[in-house]
Specification:
3-stranded mixed β-sheet; Alkaline Phosphatase, subunit A; EC 3.1.3.1; disordered N terminus; Alkaline phosphatase; alpha/beta; 10-stranded mixed β-sheet
Length: about 550
């Protein structure tokens, strides 16, 4: 750890210690004020800590208020699961294909909430009994999301971890921890670059693709192909606005189109046309000009480069779905000037769904007899969380789940490793419905999904009481959940995220792991990269040459 990193980590712990101290003091004050209550009426204190909750409104709607599963139900369920588990065996053969699904912002509470929400949408008795498609994957692990100089990571440094196999610094992508934020010179030094699992796949002769509903130059997908000292340097004007020479310091869009491994990616689908167009060119949909100052039209550059390589460029859903995947070896689809719209707005914007983009990508990539690597990001989960739009975040999670489902259905579990995880979690708590407060809190309700910070803060009244939200329209998809601390946007959490996996060597992704371990496990399974590989071990054990 460098001195700067150590100082940064120490500052964080100092801040955290202060917060913990405040909580301890508050707890002490609370205990001091309730000692008499505890002595005189212990039952009242227990009731305050574990209040009687009202029947959730969704249970009233479903008519399940008086229904329940008896003990026999749970015993039978356990018996079925045990029989399933003992029949499961690790698949220990080379993974020909790999699909890496990244639900950005998909924290553990988000997974739980989305599962329940799915069950409610399917009119199940309760909701909790539902299962997400990746819930049913045979192997599950947990990933630690901290970065080199930050306890709470962002989508940039975590992308370096889960795609390049090394921790990095906050806001940097595809570079070692020796590169500090905004250090252009260090960024341009190849000695400071870390290669991605996508590049490993290309070097092994596999076809590759990236799919996202964010900008294709955004932090998560950029981890597959770029080396950048600041995640915001998506086009040259952002580099120049930071005081650096964009002719020397390559931006992310330029690296995608002009440098390896970006220029060799077979499928590129997502948003973000603005980073590829010069300021002189108007966008095809939005009445806005491109952002590039260098005059480069990188979309045209891509089209010319792929002219004799069976390449196709598309800009909307209709064009994507009309692509003849049999005759297409390279496909770039940029469906929005900026990020793609949320799923509830996609139809009006003529944007494809994440599921549709995934299906087209797999159809093209699987033609390669050597196999393929595909990175798919559901990035709008994170965007909805930043806006504290919990309902929209859950809808986006279910759209992401559909993409995972089609990816598993289109491939063979015996030769295709599928990994589902998250880069950075969001600070949310499940689940949203009104919960009544005990009488000692003035009977003001709150929602069971809330955020630690963000734009959903409700100012307390002059009497110090929190706002009564009974009149809020919580069915609105853009409803802002309650937050504890007011901020312009909700921020990421530093908690662990889940890893779901199925296919060859999926069992390597179980337990509590550093996020940077994930691509090394993928490399082992697919026999790609410079690290440990199954094919080497197999050759050693069998004496094969």
């Amino acid at each position: 750890m460098t001195r700067l990193q150590e100082c940064s980590r120490n500052r964080q712990w100092s801040a955290i210690s202060s917060i913990l101290l405040v909580h301890v003091l508050l707890l002490t004050l609370h205990v001091d004020n309730t000692e008499a209550m505890q002595e005189n009426n212990g039952d009242s204190l227990e009731e305050a800590m574990h209040p009687t909750l009202p029947v959730p409104s969704f249970m009233e709607r479903s008519g399940s208020v008086n229904s329940y599963e008896d003990a026999t139900h749970w015993h039978k369920q356990a018996k079925r699961i045990i029989k399933t588990k003992i029949r499961q065996h690790p698949i220990e053969q080379k993974a020909k294909n790999v699909i890496f699904f990244l639900g950005d912002g998909m924290s553990i509470p988000t997974v739980t909430s989305a599962r329940i929400f799915k069950g409610q949408l399917e009119n199940l008795t309760y909701g909790e009994e539902a299962a997400l498609s990746f819930d049913q994957f045979p192997f599950t692990g947990v990933s630690k999301t901290y970065c080199s100089n930050s306890q709470v990571g962002d989508s940039a440094c975590t992308a370096t971890s889960y795609l390049c196999g090394s921790k990095g610094n906050y806001r940097t992508i595809g570079v070692t921890p020796d590169v500090q934020e905004s250090d252009c010179s260090a960024q341009m030094d190849p000695a400071n670059h870390v290669t991605s699992v996508l590049q490993w796949a290309q070097e092994a002769g596999l076809s590759t693709g990236i799919v996202t509903n964010t900008r294709v130059t955004h932090a998560s997908p950029a981890g597959a192909y770029s080396h950048i000292a600041h995640r915001n340097w998506e086009q040259d004007d952002a580099v120049e606005n930071s005081g650096f020479d964009a002719a020397y310091c390559d931006d992310i869009a330029e690296q995608l189109i002009l440098k390896s491994p970006g220029r060799d990616i077979n499928v590129i689908l997502g948003g973000g046309r603005s980073a590829f167009l010069p300021k002189e060119i108007m966008d095809v949909e939005d009445p806005k000009r491109g952002k590039r100052r260098d005059g480069k039209n990188l979309i045209d550059t891509w089209i010319v480069d792929k002219l004799y390589k069976n390449g196709k460029y598309v800009t909307n859903r209709e064009e994507l779905l009309s692509v003849n995947t049999t005759d297409t070896d390279y496909l770039m689809g940029l469906f929005a000037y900026d990020h793609m719209d949320y799923a509830d707005k996609a139809k009006a914007a003529n944007d494809p769904t994440l599921e549709e983009m995934t299906r087209v990508a797999v159809e093209i990539l699987r033609k390669n007899p050597n196999g393929f690597f595909l990175f798919v990001e559901g990035g709008k989960i994170d965007h909805a969380h930043h806006a504290t739009n919990a309902k929209r975040a859950l809808h986006e999670t279910l759209e992401f789940e559909k993409a995972v489902k089609i990816g598993r259905e289109m491939t063979d579990i015996d030769d295709t490793l599928i990994v589902v995880t998250s880069g950075t979690p969001s600070v949310d708590i499940p689940f949203w419905d009104l919960v009544g407060s005990p009488t000692w809190m003035a009977s003001l309700p709150y929602t069971t999904i809330s955020y630690a910070n963000g734009p959903g803060y409700r100012q307390a009244g002059k009497n110090g009481k929190r706002k009564n939200i009974r009149g809020d329209n919580m069915e609105a998809i853009n409803y802002r959940q309650i937050t504890t601390v007011p901020m312009v946007f909700e921020t990421h959490g530093g908690d662990d995220v889940l890893i779901f996996s199925s296919g060859p060597f999926a069992h390597l992704l179980t337990g509590v792991l550093d996020q940077s371990y994930i691509p090394h496990a993928i490399g082992y399974a697919a026999c790609i990269g410079q690290g440990e590989k199954f094919c080497d071990d197999y050759a050693h054990l069998t004496g094969a040459r």
